[in-house]
Amino acid sequence: MEGKRRNGILRKFGMALRRYRRIAKLTQEDLADMAGIERSHVGTIERGENNLTLISIVKLCDALKINPSDLLTDLDKWPKGG
Known about the structure:
By secondary structure, the protein is an all-alpha fold. The chain is 65% helix and 0% strand. It has one domain: 434 Repressor (Amino-terminal Domain) (Orthogonal Bundle).
C-alpha cells in the first residue's frame, strides 16, 4: 500500500478511536487497562503511528462497547485504489 495512503488511513483510524474514547469519557490509560494493552500503544494508535492487528481492534471496541464497524466507518470514505 502506498505510504501516504497508509499513513492517512492510520491517522483517520486513530482520530476515530480518540473520538470514541472521549465520548466514553476514558483516558488512554483507562482504555488500555480495559482492553488489556499498553497505554503507550493506545497513544501510538491515536496518533496514527501504529498499524494495529484485528485482535487489537476488537479488544479496543469491546472496551468501548462499540462494534468494529463503528471505528471503520470513516475509512469507507477513503478513496479506493492507488
